[in-house]
DNA sequence: AAGATTCTATGATGCACCTCATAGACGTGC
DNA sequence: GCACGTCTATGAGGTGCATCATAGAATCTT
């Protein structure tokens, strides 16, 4: 069971020739992570570029006193931490399996070689990279908005990935909005009363996206 | 008065051959900006990569109700907004001259051509991007911190650029720490009483960096 | 089935910070 | 010189949100 078919389904890796992809599949490894387990930690040397095959991985920062904030949620098919593959420096964040997950690990060295050899692949990687930078720059400006706005923003962003029903706990939403569970629940309760969302254990459903958009931008 | 000698002093442009640099100098233009004037605005099409020749430029985001936050301070010799030159998309932030400034504008198209032609130049540019991404990712983790910590962090970061005496007003410091002038002044007064800094109109001097480091990381 | 654990929910309290108001110090233009 | 704008400074008051406490509901464990 080679990884080649899986690699074919990843848009970034489509830029590779069949033989390049085949070779990459040979040196890459699949690995299981239990819920809560770290795929890598901030500061670890960058050994692998990762792709989510199954499950969900959160990129996060841990502060003192155990507070955590999630900067990005990676779902199946998504590739993460190309940055260390580019500059050969350590991972800038923690990557934690949010549920039991299967991750494909591509050795950084192999990835880096391909960047050097294949200009089309470099170009595509750069695009991904630029997107990420824009994403992060955008996030960093919303960080000082009110919690209500941040939450609306978070829900809208997640709905691009998951559709209207977002399969995250209130605690996970809180970590994305950089607030506490209690505050998150209070605000979501309020939004629920207004009919903007529905809420159940482990998931939140957007009913009126326009209402959230108003909140996020007003 | 060609721009070539100036370009020689910019480390990124040292990667170019003399003739490439000469050609770049011919198509680039110097432009003056008065204090408060915009070099470009968020969303503008990316016409030029910019280098500060004299003065100081702040990269910032404006929120509703006129609140502004400064994400980055660019000083002479620094090059900014290579990102749009890479992905050809609009500027992600506003660039405002914080004092009367002279900016050298390199046409995006010329810059982009060089990226394609000269691998060493591409490599160096990538390094700059990677650094920027890491910088931004780091900033975004300041979110959970108290204003005091954010301010300590801001002062330390700025002192890497300016040395111990930071020539910014309290208002500008406030914009960097994402807080108000009043709170900034209150906290700086406190730090002054403790002997960690000195403060005068339009500038703040770090006296005991270790004290700030303790604050920023404790 | 009973107990443990996680998730959701809501109230009470406190505080860090924003907002508004006032004022003196300093520089700038006329 | 005086008027004006900018910068610094400090007080009073209000509030958004964290923290702490409690508890019920859903799910997992054995």
Question: If you compute it from the alpha carbons, what radius of gyration of chain A comes out, rounded to the nearest whole angstrom?
Answer: 19 Å
Most extensive contact: A-B, 31 and 30 residues
Biggest sheet layout of chain A: 4 strands, antiparallel
Question: What's the overall geometry of chain A?
Answer: elongated
Count of beta strands of chain A:
11
Assign the structural class of chain A, choosing from mainly alpha, mainly beta, alpha/beta, alpha+beta, or little secondary structure. alpha+beta
Helix content of chain A: 40-55%
Task: Report the sheet-strand fraction of chain A.
Answer: 15-25%
Number of helices of chain A: 9
SSE succession of chain A: HHEEEEEEHEEHHHEHHEEH
List low-pLDDT spans of chain A.
Answer: none
Strand order of the largest sheet of chain A: 1-8-3-6
- How far the N terminus sits from the C terminus of chain A, by CA atoms, comes to 52 Å
Task: Report on the architecture of this protein.
2 copies of one chain form a homodimer. The first copy, chain A, has helices at residues 4-8, 18-27, 83-87, 108-117, 119-142, 147-162, 170-177, 181-193, 209-217; strands spanning 29-33, 38-40, 48-54, 57-62, 68-74, 79-80, 94-97, 101-107, 165-166, 197-200, 203-206. By secondary structure, chain A is an alpha+beta fold. Chain A has 2 domains: 4-141, Jelly Rolls; 145-217, Arc Repressor Mutant, subunit A (Orthogonal Bundle). In chain A, strands 1-8-3-6 form a 4-stranded antiparallel sheet. In chain A, β4 (57-62) and β5 form a beta hairpin. In chain A, α6 packs across α7, α6 crosses α9 (209-217) and α7 packs across α8. The longest helix of chain A is centred in the middle third of the chain and has 24 residues, at 119-142. The termini of chain A are far apart. Chain A binds chain B through residues 61, 63-64, 67, 69, 71, 83, 86-87, 89, 92-93, 126-127, 129-134, 136-141, 143-145, 178, 218, and chain B through 61, 63-64, 69, 71, 83, 86-87, 89, 92-93, 126-127, 129-134, 136-141, 143-145, 178, 218. Chain A binds a DNA duplex (30 and 30 nucleotides) through residues 146-147, 169-171, 179-183, 185-186, 189, 199-202.
């Amino acid at each position: 069971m080679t990884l080649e078919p899986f690699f074919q389904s990843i848009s970034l890796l489509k830029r590779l020739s069949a033989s390049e992809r085949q070779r990459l599949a040979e040196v890459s490894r699949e690995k299981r992570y239990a819920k809560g387990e770290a795929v890598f930690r901030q500061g670890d040397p960058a050994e692998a570029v990762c792709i989510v095959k199954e499950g969900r991985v959160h990129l996060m920062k841990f502060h003192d006193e155990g507070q955590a904030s999630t900067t990005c949620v990676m779902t199946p098919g998504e590739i993460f931490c190309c940055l260390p593959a580019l500059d050969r420096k350590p991972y800038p964040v923690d990557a934690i399996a949010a549920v039991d997950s299967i991750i494909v690990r591509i050795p950084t060295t192999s990835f880096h070689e391909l960047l050097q050899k294949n200009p089309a692949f470099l170009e595509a990687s750069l695009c991904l990279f630029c997107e990420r930078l824009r994403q992060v720059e955008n996030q960093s400006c919303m960080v000082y908005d009110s919690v209500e706005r941040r939450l609306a923003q978070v829900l809208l962003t997640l709905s691009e990935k998951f559709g209207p029903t977002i399969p995250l706990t209130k605690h996970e939403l809180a970590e994305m909005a950089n607030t506490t569970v209690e505050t998150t629940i209070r605000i979501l309760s309020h939004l629920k009363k207004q009919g903007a969302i529905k809420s159940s254990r482990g998931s939140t459903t957007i009913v009126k996206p326009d209402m959230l958009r108003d909140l996020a931008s007003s």
